[in-house]
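Report of the visiting student (M.T.), summer placement. My assignment was to run the structure pipeline on a short list of targets and document each run. The first record concerns M14 family metallocarboxypeptidase.
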Amino acid sequence: MTTTQAPYPIGTPGTRWGNAEVAAWLARQTVKRSYEVDVLDAIERLRARFDVSEYGRVKYDGSDSYPLFAIKSRDWRDELPIVLVTGGVHGYETSGVHGALQFAELQASHYEGKANLVVAPCVSPWAYERIHRWNADAIDPNRSFRDDSPAQESAALMRLVAPFRDRVLVHVDLHETTDSDESEFRPALAARDGVAHAPGEVPDGFYLVDDSEHPQPAFQQAVIAAVAKVTHIAPADGQGEIIGSPAVAPGVIEYALKRLGLCAGITDATYKTTTEVYPDSPRATVEQCTAAQVAAVCAAIDFALTHRAIGT
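After the run finished, the structure tokens were exported:
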């Protein structure tokens, strides 16, 4: 869908936000759901089967301190490949969080003895509770995975991954593209940066973001094929694009993951992808969106393990 947008209610058009504008934006954010109930309680139920470790804490003035947890294979073996699954880098993208948790609960046991799993289900808990894209500093964590990151959430995940980043075989980063991207988040971004907002089109369906610097087209298509059994794949628009990028294959676009500071670029994994589910589609349910994330993770691992075994 294509939308139009009135001037964003904070800031002066054409002028970047300063501290006053960020404070005004922050004052508008309210807690809408519970990280403790939705995420921490689910992680607690997994402790009997996994090693669960706190890898950091997120703390902002005037808010609670949020512990960050990783779920790891209990039978960790150094000779096995490592699989990294991340969700909730953008806190408002619900199926990424619940897809990561559901994968750990229902599917992770299938990979025992085949791979070491690391699942970080909710990278941005402050934003999860407020159903927002940014953190409390009005920073997008998914543009902040770089040295000296300005985002607490991104820096904490990078510290978690640092000891094994060169040994990761596959990394799946779980995301959503929603109608609120156009109604709120992209207009807010334009206002924050003092630029004009150009309305775009939200793709109806699931798609993937490959790494333009190290593309793996067969891997991406294997994931698309698996997800197509669960929910529909986003078509390209009239210009052959998905969210402004050329579709290089059905349901696949490419970004320069490391250069853009994206989460999917934090390791040297041979196989990496960012999933994008469309939860606002009349053709998909909440359950389908979560199931699509789980299907994507399983297909990614299956492809990577198979091709590693045959040396391709």
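The mean pLDDT is 96. The helical segments are 19-27, 35-46, 94-106, 125-130, 152-161, 179-193, 217-227, 286-309. I thank the supervising group for their guidance throughout the placement.
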